[in-house]
Amino acid sequence: MTNTTQGSTMKEGYAARKKAVNVAVYIILSVMVLIWIFPIVWLILRSFEGEKGMSSSHFLPQKWTFGNYIKLFNNEDFMFGQWFLNTLIVAIFTCIISTLFILMVSYAFSRLRFKSRKTFLNIGLILGMFPGFMSMAATYNIMEILGLGKSLVALVIVYSAGAGLGYQVAKGFFDTIPRSLDEAAKIDGATRNQIFWIIILPLSKPIIVYTALTTFIGPWTDYIFVDYFMKDNQETYTVALGLYKMIEKEFVTEYFTTFCAGAVVIAIPITILFVIMQRFYVAGVTGGAVKG
Amino acid sequence: MDYLDYVQMTKGQRIAYKIKSFFRGIPGAVGNFFRLIGLFIKKFFMWIGNGFKGYGSRFAKGDIGTKLSYIIMGAGSMFHRQIAKGLIFLATEIAYIYFMFSFGVGYISKLYCMNVKTTATVDGQPIDVFVDGCIGQEALQKVEDDWGTQTIVNPDTYDDSNRILLFAVLSLIITVAFFAVYIANTKSAYATQMTLKEGKKPLNFIAEMKTFLDERFHITLLTLPVLLLCTFTILPIIFTIFMAFTNYNEKHLPPGRFYWWVGFSNFADVFYSNPQKSETFGRILVWTLIWAFFATFSNYIFGIILALLINKKGIKFKGFWRTMFVITAAVPQFVTLLIMRLLLDKDNGLNAMFGTHYPFLDDGMWAKVMIIIVNMWVGIPYTMLISSGLLMNIPEDLYESARIDGANAVQQFTKITFPYIFFVTTPYLITTFVGNINNFNVIYLLTGGGPSATNYYAAGETDLLVTWLYKLTKDSKDYNLSAVIGIIVFIICALGSLITFNMSKASKNEEEFS
Amino acid sequence: MASNSKKAVALVLTAMMAATSLVGCNSGSGSSGGSTTTTSTAASTASGDASGDTSAEESVVDLESDETIKLIKDKIAAEAEKTDGKITMKVWCSSGDLKFEKTLIKEFEDKYADSRYTFSIKPNGAIGEDAAGGKIIESPKDGADVFNFADDQLSQLVEAEAIAKVSNVFNGNVKKNNTDDAVAVCSSGGTPYAFPKTSDNGYFLYYDKRVLSEDDVKDFDTMIAKAKAANKSVFFDIANGWYSTSFFFTAGCTIEYKDGKQTATYNTPEGLSAAKAMCHIAENVDNGFIGAAGSSGDNSTVQQGFKEGKFAAAIIGTWCGRDIKDALGEQNVGAAKLPTVLMDGEQKQLHSFGGYKVVGVNAFTKYPTTAQALAYYLTSEQSQIKRYNERGLIPTNKNALEDETIKADPAQQAIAAQREFAHPQGSSVGGKYWASNIAGLGSEILNAKGKLTDAELNKKLSDLVTQFKG
Fold this sequence. Notes:
The complex is a heterotrimer.
Chain A: H1 15-46, H2 67-73, H3 80-111, H4 117-127, H5 136-145, H6 152-161, H7 168-176, H8 179-187, H9 192-203, H10 205-221, H11 224-230, H12 239-246, H13 252-286
Chain B: H1 3-8, H2 11-61, H3 64-68, H4 75-79, H5 83-113, E1 117-122, E2 125-130, E3 140-145, E4 148-153, H6 161-197, H7 205-211, H8 217-243, H9 265-273, H10 275-311, H11 318-330, H12 333-343, H13 349-354, H14 364-391, H15 396-404, H16 409-424, H17 426-437, H18 440-446, H19 465-474, H20 479-513
Antiparallel strand pairs in B: 1-2, 3-4
Chain C: H1 2-23, H2 32-46, H3 66-81, E1 86-92, H4 98-111, E2 118-124, H5 132-138, E3 146-150, H6 154-159, H7 168-177, H8 180-185, E4 187-188, E5 191-192, E6 194-202, E7 204-208, H9 220-229, E8 233-235, H10 241-251, E9 255-258, E10 261-264, H11 269-282, E11 289-290, H12 297-307, E12 311-316, H13 321-328, E13 333-336, E14 340-343, E15 346-349, E16 352-361, H14 368-378, H15 381-391, H16 398-402, H17 404-408, H18 410-418, E17 422-423, H19 431-434, H20 437-447, H21 454-468
């Protein structure tokens, strides 16, 4: 995010040529930005379109309206408000449980040394390579037997039960905290439990934020599991599935612009969250962990 | 080159050297990989052998309590005055035995039943049922009168195949877990015996509990996550793997119908014996690999170029440019992809705006190209973000010496920048490649696997193995086939990442050399 | 329990016989003379069924009589007892029908209201009529107790034993009141499994009278030429198997679904003729002809196309009738049977799928009688007439079809004219048929703008036939 301007003071011999190159770069960047921003702008403009249907040949709305946003929360076919709430609930619980699990597991793998550590790490790596929804049918059967079919609890479980496998990024972070801290605390008589809560966690704010945000965003964007798990139970849909339903064949004409409004509503908070946490994201990915 | 040569190099040369040796290591890594697999198998059997050896020797050297604990769990602990611990072990054993006799054995034996099939005539139609004693024939009762027909499931005698398989797998997992506790029990008995022998006092229960906050804190931390992982990830995966060996498909759907073991015939179908399925599999596999390759490297290379442009000296508003791209990356993928799908529709979106009818997503070849392009749109900002940070870390003297040698900008990129970033981001590349093989969203939300074609089994021209898997589960109900595909995807990903992982490990070893 | 109820039924039935012979007229309107003959034929077919009572089967129970209603209430109460006097049921219908279905359910609840139990019946529009069968099979226990579906899914449902037989009492009435074709479609192997609801699950031609005349719409080529001249298009979604199968029927291919096996003689000279006829039309693609609906689906495309004045004609069904009328104005909407197409050098009348929308009862429902009674109510004469008035969907009930407004409906006339060229779905196609391959043929032809050689087409057709085998 910072402007690096070290180069600007350097004296250059080929000033004119440099300038021409820079102008070219500006042009390329501007064109690219236009291409990249265009669909987003198109989406936002459509969400203010007063005319129904998706075949509009106009870029700007033919009739400006805010009605789509009202219709989003107030219509006969889709209970978007309910879905929004569902997603929020699922996201909050998933976030808390997953973050806790991830921190616990990655702390154990990073700072503690025990006999079967390597085995566990390998098993984790192997499990991560199975396609996530390969066993979706089986998982649904389990939920049914537990009496949790079609419930939000089932979603929270599905999203957070496997969270332990997502330890790589946090583990990479914990690895960078100097071990001497642990040693010093140990000499002072602290147990590993105390070290975890009192010393390591306060130092790990960035990774906690990163983990919490990613696990919070997950339920907002998952389509596969909700679709398979919730079947006909519209009361427990989440926004991703709900929005997808809006542009299914039966509804697309009537609800296309409403879909756009819904997409904007979902995209705004997530976009803000992502922009805030982008530096954690970069740190996380380039931390160097090999993930399955 | 030996150590002396190496230390004489400048920093830049060292990096260049490392990069070179990394690429030289590729063929070796592949060979190494197979050697490692051999090693792993050897190690595994050694581990089992050692386990038995330890198990036997502990028994031989154990006192009466330890020996007793081989049959009655917790006996050793109680014998050594660790009553609470002993009781817990004992309770575990009792609970396990009770569970197995009331539940587990029945289901595990029904796994065998899934093999024994006879044909009976119901309503004048032959249907497959299982021999008596396995699954009661009266389990599914049809109650019928002039006012209504009802199928009643009798829970005492009825089990659908799903429940049998699921509970059997559960019983097996619990057995494995019990076995681990059992071994821990004998070890603990022996360890306490040794402690006593040395004249020390064994830990009392409370003190032992306290170790779970310290020496054995990892157990405290890992128990719950592992437990949930076992129930909701490992159990379903094992279930699904078993499913691959059954005929669980449209024609054998519980609860109305049963399914049973068919051995490897599903795998045979996918690989050679059923031309519809095997040809579809072949086409989809090829496209999956092509897609993963292009999706990974197009994003990667263009992302780096974009980062270079933004970070070029003399370019102003760097923060602005970056933010513009980050915003598009930040919008949830399912939103951007659905928008793209509508924008690229044959009659709407862009086509409507320009009054054209390009079959962007309606023609196989067009759709494949468009998918890769849209994926670039989705993915380039990510790569840009990541490589931006890395670009600043490239040692300046590398460029300096290159310039002195008369290298132009392009040469600098191909000779320095790209290899450097490639070297640093290899793990990321592996992850992305595997991720792209499993990239459900881009394909499913953009084209839904379409356009449809005459010669694909339950798939369209742009389906990847994973989206095919999903469709097989969700639409055509070929659960067995989808399990086979899941296993194949797993094997591809595992092989791919193990080979490359080994490679980067080999190059890391090289680093240690310095 | 079963034998008890049989006795009760026998009793009631004898009472009914007496009652009907006295009153002479059955439920609602309709001629009493006709009803006696149908009764006897229905009974004679029904006697082939499993249940043992002999004398009782000779007549059809009058479901509207007070005694029967009371008896049904008793039945419902007995079923409700097991769930603490509360009947919780779910009904799947298409999302468009949701509101209408709600009113019908309300009526049903009022009709059978009783102090011994309370109803909680919820219609659900999440699973449409095209998907209901598949979803029921996937997990019957999660499925709706009563579900609306298209008749082609019946064989799958029966195979999976997920659908309940229509019980004798209701079946007698269903057989008596609905057209023979509709009743035939609802049974499999001689056993009735569903309640016929609407007879319009087929397609025909809607056109804009201002652009095309009655003569223009007789053959496809003229129609396209005229539309092109007016700078408009003809829409026929041949990238959709349901529509494109028309060509194969026309060419005389046999398409059969039996014992879970799909056969289709597409890899024959007839199949090739059909494909070539498709190619011939596809030459005009995006130039007077639109052959694929794209991601918005056939219905939306048609609605939108007429609304924006892009379409001169479209091959679609009654479900779009309302929107087309709104877009063109009632007086400008024409409806006709399908046009002829150029095949093997001559004009041949296009055949079609002519299906029914039906209602089924989940085999695993907790409330078998209640569910059957509800399914019957949803498809009764009054409900079918209301459905026509509210939703414009054509009934299967004989009396309802005699209704003057329905008779005069151009859509109904078009369906009737197309009827002799329409093929039933249930016996022709199973679930595997709709897997994307048949759609693939259409879209490949469209993408090539019809320029495919015979060899290429033959290859595609034989691929197609292989894929049908599953």
